[in-house]
From TrEMBL:
SMART domains assigned to the protein according to its UniProt record, in alphabetical order: AAA
Enzyme class of the recorded protein, top EC level: hydrolase
InterPro entries, sorted: AAA+_ATPase (IPR003593), ABC_AA/LPS_Transport (IPR051120), ABC_transporter-like_ATP-bd (IPR003439), ABC_transporter-like_CS (IPR017871), P-loop_NTPase (IPR027417)
This protein's encoding gene: lptB_8
Protein name: Lipopolysaccharide export system ATP-binding protein LptB
Source organism of this protein record: Sulfitobacter dubius
């Protein structure tokens, strides 16, 4: 069953066409890789999909609802959550508090209830704490819960960002280059987490430069180049396409992987 339908999505910045008539679908429970060379439009696509940027034209349908003009907050409430290339944690807060920040939307209470002690805030805060603890366990971060986010390694900070995203109870998670800057060991740990989340039924779209990692994890690939769709299909099928190999500096498939 289709969960996300993107039709002829375009984004212009003045005279620059960053995305041009990009169309694809993502099914429930899918794990899709969005790949392409630097400047291909991958992050722009994420920004438009999640409402960080407005589409110039085209449409986005999520869970059967047209979300093309909806705000990022409304899209998140509908179940679409993302991470960013650059880690965006509250470094002076604990890991648990960072994850709790993502759980506030799920708990159905605003931060104002907590700040001003309005009725129901204690029950809401208790539930938010429970959600945070569940996500820390799910991502293997329980032992770091009481430490400040700034004290963690780069790879663990990446996992905190994913835990915070999971705390909002997404049905679709968009990961923007989560393995960037990681060691091989950290990448292996991340790959296991992504696979486990998908096995649990979470739909994931993964933007990642590490094609070997994407090929090992994903069920399907979407390839963009210069803002346009280049290919879409099963992993092996796509990576055999000469035009896909060509955009990676003319390398052959075995060299890409």
């Amino acid at each position: 069953m289709s969960q996300l339908n993107v039709r002829k999505l375009s984004k212009r910045f003045g005279g620059v066409q960053a995305l041009s008539n990009v169309s694809f679908t993502v099914g429930k429970g899918d794990l899709v890789g969005l790949i392409g060379p630097n400047g291909a439009g991958k992050t722009t696509a994420f920004n438009v999909l999640t409402g960080v940027m407005a589409a110039s034209s085209g449409s986005i349908e999520f869970e059967g609802k047209d979300i093309t003009r909806l705000s990022p907050e409304v899209r998140a409430n509908l179940g679409m959550t993302r991470t960013f290339q650059n880690i965006r944690l509250f470094d002076d807060m604990t890991v648990r508090q960072n994850v709790m920040a993502g759980a506030h939307a799920r708990a159905g209470r605003s931060l104002m209830h907590s700040v001003f002690g309005l009725p129901g805030h204690r029950a809401a805060e208790q539930r938010i704490g429970e959600i945070a603890d569940e996500m820390l366990e799910r991502t293997g971060l329980t032992e770091f819960g009481s430490r400040n986010a700034s004290e963690l390694s780069y790879g663990d900070r990446r996992r905190v960002e994913i835990a915070r995203a999971l705390a909002s109870a997404p049905t679709l998670l968009l990961l923007d280059e989560p393995a960037a800057g990681m060691t091989d060991t950290e990448k292996g740990r991340l790959s296991q987490l992504v696979r486990r989340l998908n096995d649990d039924g979470l739909t994931i779209i993964l933007v990642e430069h590490n094609v070997r990692m994407v090929a090992a994890l994903c069920k399907r690939l979407i390839v963009v180049n210069k803002g346009e769709m280049l290919a879409i299909g099963e992993v092996d099928e796509v990576l055999r396409m000469p035009e896909v190999a060509a955009v990676y500096l003319g390398r052959r498939r075995k060299e890409i992987l």
